C-alpha cells in the first residue's frame, strides 16, 4: 500500500523530485515498478516541505489521485525546498476521512508517512491505545492505522525519544500486537530523514550533486540507488546514510558506498496502465 519519498539537501524544486523523474512519485501513483501490495495509488496524496528560515513545514494534501490535480503540477513547478516528504495513497480500507487520511501527517517540525498496513485494524491495536492520553486519541487526524501509528510515534517524540528509537520502538510494538504488519515508516524534521524497512521496499540515493533521497522505490535508473534490507532502520542526513537492524542502536559509521547494479531497472510485466487523463511524465532524468 502506498509509495513515499523524502529528501534533504540543497534547494530543489518539488517537480524535479516528484514529477519530472521518469519513475517518480507522480508516475508511481498509477505505475509503480516495485510495489508488492496493490497496483494503483489513487486514494489521495500529500506533500510536505520546508521553506527557508521556517522550521515548521507546509503541507498540500488531497483526497484524489495526484495526476488529476492540475494545481499541484503548477505548484510543484515553482516551489523550491531544502527538504520534503511526499506520499501517494492506496487505502487499506475505504473511509470518510478524505485528505485528512493522506500522508504526510505533521506536528511541529515533524512530517511522517506510513507505507504498509496493520492486520485486524482497529481491534488488533486497541490495547496500545492505553499508552496514549485521552487527548491524543481524540485528536487523531484520521480513523486509519497510519494515523494511529503516527500517534504512537509522536507520543515518543514528545517524551524526548530520538527519532530513530521512536520509529523502531513503535514498529516492534505494533508488530508484536499485530503480527504480519507492514511498517515502512518515514520521518523527517527538515534536517534528517529516518525510516524503517519492515515488510515492503525501501531504497536510498546519495545524489552526486549533494543531498539524500529515501524512497519506496527508485525514481530513475541511476546505478547509485541502494536497496535497504528488510527489518532495517535508516537514518540519513544531507551527507551520509546510517543503517542498523531495527531495535539496535545506529552504527557510528556511514553505510558503505553503493556498488553499481549489474543492470538498469526494467519495467515489470503487468504494469498498471496510465489513466487516459494522466499527463505524461518528463523523459529527462535528474542529473
TrEMBL record:
Domain of life from the UniProt record: Bacteria
Known catalytic reactions: gamma-L-glutamyl-hercynylcysteine S-oxide + H2O = S-(hercyn-2-yl)-L-cysteine S-oxide + L-glutamate
Bias-annotated ranges (Low complexity): 262-287
Function, as annotated: Catalyzes the hydrolysis of the gamma-glutamyl amide bond of hercynyl-gamma-L-glutamyl-L-cysteine sulfoxide to produce hercynylcysteine sulfoxide, a step in the biosynthesis pathway of ergothioneine.
Transmembrane domains' residue ranges: none
Pfam family, one: GATase_4
UniProt xrefs under CDD domains: YafJ
SUPFAM superfamilies reported for this sequence: N-terminal nucleophile aminohydrolases (Ntn hydrolases)
InterPro entries xref list: EgtC, EgtC-like, EgtC_Actinobacteria, Gamma-glu_amide_hydrolase, GATase_2_dom, Ntn_hydrolases_N
Residue ranges, compositional bias (Pro residues): 247-261
EC identifiers of the protein: 3.5.1.118
Catalytic EC class: hydrolase
Name of the protein in its database record: Gamma-glutamyl-hercynylcysteine sulfoxide hydrolase
Record organism: Streptomyces prasinosporus
Keywords: Glutamine amidotransferase, Hydrolase
Amino acid at each position: 500500500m502506498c509509495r513515499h519519498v523524502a529528501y534533504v539537501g540543497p534547494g530543489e524544486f518539488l517537480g524535479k523530485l516528484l514529477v519530472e523523474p521518469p519513475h517518480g512519485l507522480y508516475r508511481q501513483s498509477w505505475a509503480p515498478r516495485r510495489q508488492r501490495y496493490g497496483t494503483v495509488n489513487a486514494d489521495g496524496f500529500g506533500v510536505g516541505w520546508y521553506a527557508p528560515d521556517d522550521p515548521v513545514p507546509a503541507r498540500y494534501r488531497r483526497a484524489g489521485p495526484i495526476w488529476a490535480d492540475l494545481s499541484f503540477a503548477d505548484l510543484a513547478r515553482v516551489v523550491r525546498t531544502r527538504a520534503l516528504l511526499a506520499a501517494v495513497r492506496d487505502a487499506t480500507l475505504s473511509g470518510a476521512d478524505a485528505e485528512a487520511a493522506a500522508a504526510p501527517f505533521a506536528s511541529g517540525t515533524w512530517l511522517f508517512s506510513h507505507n504498509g498496513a496493520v492486520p485486524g485494524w482497529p481491534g488488533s491495536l486497541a490495547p496500545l491505545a492505553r499508552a496514549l492520553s485521552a487527548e491524543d486519541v481524540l485528536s487523531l487526524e484520521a480513523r486509519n492505522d497510519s494515523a494511529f501509528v503516527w500517534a504512537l510515534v509522536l507520543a515518543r517524540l514528545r517524551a524526548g525519544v530520538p527519532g530513530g528509537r521512536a520509529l523502531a520502538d513503535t514498529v516492534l510494538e505494533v508488530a508484536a500486537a499485530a503480527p504480519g504488519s507492514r511498517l515502512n515508516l518515514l520521518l523527517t524534521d527538515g534536517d534528517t530523514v529516518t525510516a524503517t524497512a519492515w515488510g515492503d521496499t525501501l531504497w536510498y540515493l546519495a545524489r552526486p550533486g549533494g543531498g539524500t533521497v529515501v524512497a519506496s522505490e527508485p525514481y530513475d535508473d541511476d546505478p547509485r540507488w541502494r536497496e535497504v534490507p528488510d527489518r532495517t532502520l535508516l537514518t540519513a542526513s544531507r551527507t551520509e546514510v546510517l543503517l542498523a537492524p531495527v531495535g539496535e542502536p545506529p552504527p557510528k559509521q556511514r553505510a558503505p558506498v553503493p556498488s553499481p547494479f549489474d543492470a538498469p531497472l526494467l519495467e515489470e510485466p503487468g504494469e498498471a496502465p496510465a489513466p487516459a487523463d494522466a499527463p505524461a511524465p518528463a523523459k529527462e532524468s535528474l542529473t
